[in-house]
Amino acid sequence: MWNDVVDLRDFYKTRMGEVTRHLVRRKIRSIWPEVRGMSMLGLGYAVPFLRQFREEAERVIAVMPAQQGILPWPPEGPNCAALADETALPLPDVSVDRLLLVHGLECGEHTADMLKEMWRVLTGSGRILIVVPNRRGIWAQTDRTPFGQGHPYSASQLSKVLRANMFIPIQTQHALYVPPTRSLAILSTAPAWERIGARWFPALGGVTLVEAGKQIYAGTAVRAKRQKAPVVVPFPESARGSAGRSYLSPPERK
């Protein structure tokens, strides 16, 4: 079931949401340090993490699934958000260089169709980055946050899903080692939690981030069939006439 867009917006306005946005956004930036001149698409509810790319990328747009709902984005300036079916994106083929999916894969009911649509709009050298709740992390075990909703994934599960839908996983990262708490004292120590968690418990982050590329199968050259030389089989003597002619050939007319 999809998270409601209003609930997502309200979560990121809280102190816990601000910490989440800061930590996940920093991890996304470390994976994509350079997007200058590229076209970027945020799918699901990726707007908390897209602002950092607006001044650098050539074009940044957000598509929010119909079952989730939509809010205008950004709050200032022209709207760059659209409402669409996640399995039928209103974009041409091979038109997106970077695609960020957040609060999407774990909620969607048609995962394979959504991934196929992402594959369609991605350029040949493009990259997708999927952020999902980590099955092994504590954020997936509580419903206090949007990361406690839907179907969480381990890194190996997500990689398997991507390979099954024509993507090649490139790298895996984790973030959100701080507990999902409203305690301001604990949230203020979030950077320390991230350093310790990344060093000693790398697979226990609250979210898993997997970057993948588009798998394009190479065509197989069609070889011309080699013509075989005809095989001449001599007829046995019993199959020849008295004049030495083969009975398989019409007799000569006199």
Your description of this structure?
This protein has helices at residues 5-13, 15-31, 111-121, 155-164, 184-187, 190-200; strands spanning 39-44, 59-65, 81-84, 96-102, 122-133, 167-175, 207-214. It is of the alpha/beta class. It has one domain: Vaccinia Virus protein VP39 (Rossmann fold, 3-Layer(aba) Sandwich). It has a seven-stranded mixed beta sheet, with helices on both faces. The longest helix is centred in the first third of the chain and has 17 residues, at 15-31. The N and C termini lie far apart (92 Å). Mean pLDDT is 87; it is low at 218-224 and 239-251.
Strands, helices and their partners?
Blueprint: H1 5-13, H2 15-31, E1 39-44, E2 59-65, E3 81-84, E4 96-102, H3 111-121, E5 122-133, H4 155-164, E6 167-175, H5 184-187, H6 190-200, E7 207-214
Parallel strand pairs: 1-2, 1-4, 2-3, 4-5
Antiparallel strand pairs: 5-7, 6-7
